[in-house]
Write a structure and sequence with these properties.
673 residues, 3 domains, seven-stranded mixed beta sheet, 24 helices, Penicillin-binding protein 2a (Domain 2), alpha+beta, Beta-lactamase
Length: 673
């Protein structure tokens, strides 16, 4: 019988098996050990495939404080989601990543930045309130792609973008529009060479964690800054921040700002941007093909902004705002005032007589600088109003300069000024009661605000000296305040001809003499006018800036010194005006509120006819009368009269002349009491 296994054959098979096994072992060693080592060695020698970009390191924005060092506005760290277009496009599922981000943001209650000017749902339309910036970006987008028509409808553009960005038709139209909005933001930043796309700002910790868990390519969370307001007062003065538009970039781009930089858009945030902004730094960032950061190198350190101390006293500011609002509410509660005759607004300004610094400036109604809800129009600096009888000091100065009257010249009030047959205005007292003021000199005329006296002075003096005197008090010119202000109008024959295509009549001069007619001034101009009289004729430049300190608060960068614009040389005549304003308080139209006040006050009331059932109220004053420190001007639309709104100034003086108390201190994120 044959054996199944012969020894020689068995040895041969064993040798073959060992041989094959050896070959596999060598191959496996080469593949897993030798080749890997060689590959690692080559990898170390060859450069990584990376992309290098330069990012901006935002400089910390400086704080805003009041004159006493009370913190009004500061910044706190925030976390922003920033998208990298190149890394997102290199990733798998770009559109899915974008949709995930949008949904996660919505679930966390976070709004993201979408400025695509097409409605959020079908039927699609271009936004009716498209801004100039949105229009520019859309035009550049349409121009960049040759296949797009500049006159493309919103629907056509959406259809094209869905195809262009590979958004499947199986995806709902709402989600498609969401994704398109983000793709548009990413694209326009490349087309226009803008800063990286900040998808969402100031996100909560919960959203930070969710984004980190998913590690999406091209999606990073960066540290930014959020502006914090420590007071609800002074909104019109403080202003707000926002991203630059093309017009602003023309100015700020020249000094190194990226086009999407956040800047002051209004108020002192804008006025003192150069102090607050600081100097941005530069960061060189290397990223791999999947968007992961390989290295970061600081090329230029950021220099934080300086800290601005405003001239405001925030306690006085808050008092002024409350006093103005309370008086307006009180006036509106009058049962005799119909709904369509409610007060439409008002303003009050408090200046420091010897320096031109603004201590308080209130405009009603106000607004919220964070949400920008409310009335952003600043009546204190941009509203223009007839001055009413507060103008009579101008007429008095013009008349005394011209020799029309002297200190003791008397004019008999006849009730009706009958110099011209076609226009015969009446004194307010004659209109009210049929009585007259009798014989008056200029001080007495200011005391009782006699219209007849100033009709006569203005008529005899004529227009040119009135215009000159008004301009000497700063009317018809900007005050120098750093925020937006109106110039106002000192009416002339030329102005009336250019504006209304009408000639100048004698009636115009008579109206101008008592503060009616075509003259229109801002409350800040009226306050400076009162301060100029209080200061003996010195017209100061108005300012909101007290000083500026360095980023570490260690040094003074700028300190305000008073700027004198001009001086009225007739100090003796100014003294007569002061005498008249003091008489208005001790015996005349302002005596009801200030006659027995704890410090001597000088004042002048004004009532302006507006065509409404309720006149505008105007009031100017300064105190102490014997050594002036502050001047106040108040205007209330449909306030009734200057006498009706005097209490606003009294409340402010109560605060200013109270016993000194320590300035309040607030922590980060807290509001002043």
């Amino acid at each position: 019988m044959n054996k199944l296994f012969r020894p020689a054959r068995l040895v041969l098979l064993l040798v073959l098996f060992v041989g094959v096994l050896s070959i596999y072992a060598v191959a496996l060693y080469k593949l897993q050990i030798y080749d890997v080592a060689q590959q690692n060695s080559l990898t170390e020698q060859l450069p990584l495939v990376t992309t290098t970009r330069t990012d901006t390191i935002r400089a910390g924005r400086g704080d805003i404080l009041d004159r006493n060092g009370v913190l009004l506005v500061s910044s706190r760290p925030s976390y922003d989601v920033v998208l990298s277009r190149s890394a997102l496009l290199a990733a798998d599922g770009t559109n899915s990543i974008i949709r995930d981000l949008i949904y996660m943001s919505a679930e966390s209650g976070v709004a993201y930045n979408d400025t695509f000017p097409i409605t959020a749902g079908a039927p699609f339309e271009y936004a009716y309130d498209m801004t100039a910036t949105q229009r520019t970006r859309l035009d550049k987008y349409l121009d960049f792609f040759d296949e797009l028509d500049a006159d493309a409808t919103a629907d056509d553009l959406i259809v094209w973008m869905k195809k262009h960005y590979g958004i499947p038709y199986t995806l709902g139209i709402t989600d498609a529009r969401l994704i398109i909005g983000v793709r548009y933001e990413l694209e326009t930043r490349v087309i226009m060479n803008l800063a990286p796309y900040v998808f969402a700002e100031d996100i909560p910790a919960e959203l930070i964690s969710r984004i980190a868990e998913r590690a999406y390519p091209g999606v990073t969370v960066e540290i930014g800054a959020k502006r914090v307001y420590h007071t609800t007062s002074a909104a019109h003065i403080l202003g707000y921040l926002g991203r630059m538009d093309e017009k602003e970039y023309a100015l700020y781009g020249a000094v190194g700002y990226p086009m999407d930089a956040v800047i002051g858009k209004s108020g002192t945030e804008s006025a003192f941007e150069a102090y607050l902004h600081g100097t941005d730094g530069e960061l060189s960032v290397r990223t791999s093909e999947n968007g992961s950061v390989v290295s970061e190198v600081v090329k230029k350190e950021a220099v934080p902004g300086n800290h601005v101390y405003l001239s405001l006293d925030i306690e006085l500011q808050a008092t002024a705002e409350r006093a103005l609002a309370d008086k307006i509410i009180e006036l509106d509660l009058n049962p005799d005032r119909p709904e369509d005759q409610k007060v439409t607004g008002g303003a009050v300004v408090v200046t420091q007589v010897k320096t031109g610094e603004i201590l308080a400036s209130a405009s009603y109604p106000s607004f919220d600088p964070l949400t920008r809800t409310g009335d952003e129009f600043n009546r204190a600096t941009q509203g223009t109003y007839n001055p009413g009888s507060t103008f009579k000091m101008v007429t008095a100065l013009a008349g005394m300069r011209a020799g029309t009257i002297s200190r003791y010249t008397q004019i008999v009030d006849e009730g009706v000024f009958t110099e011209y047959p076609d226009y015969q205005p009446k004194c307010w007292l004659y209109t009210a009661s049929g009585a007259t003021h009798g014989a008056l000199d200029v001080v007495q005329a200011l005391e009782v605000s006699c219209n007849y006296f100033f009709y006569k002075v203005g008529d005899d003096t004529r227009l040119t000296p009135l215009v000159t005197a008004a301009r000497d008090f700063g009317f018809g010119a900007k005050t120098g305040i750093e925020i937006a202000e109106a110039t106002g109008v000192v009416a002339t024959e030329e102005y009336k001809k250019e504006t209304f295509n009408e000639g100048w009549w004698n009636a115009d001069t008579l109206l101008m003499s008592i503060g009616q007619g075509l003259n229109e001034f801002t409350p800040v101009q009226l306050a400076n006018y009162a301060a100029t009289i209080a200061g003996g004729g010195t017209l100061h430049e108005i300012t909101l800036l007290h000083n500026v300190k360095s980023a570490d608060y260690s040094g003074i960068v700028f300190a305000h010194t008073p700027v004198t614009r001009s001086v009225i040389p007739e100090g003796d005549l100014i003294a007569i005006l002061k005498e008249g304003m003091r008489a208005a308080v001790t015996l005349g139209t302002a005596s009801g509120v200030f006659g027995n006040y704890k410090v001597p006050v000088a004042a002048k009331t004004g009532t302006v006819q507006t065509g409404s059932d309720f006149n505008n109220g105007v009031f100017v004053c300064y105190a102490p009368a014997d050594d002036p420190e502050i001047a106040i001007a108040t205007v209330v639309e449909r306030g009734g009269s200057g006498a009706a709104i005097m209490e606003i100034a009294k409340v402010i003086m109560d605060e200013y002349f109270k016993d000194a108390a320590p300035a309040p201190v607030v922590g980060d994120g807290e509001l002043l009491p």
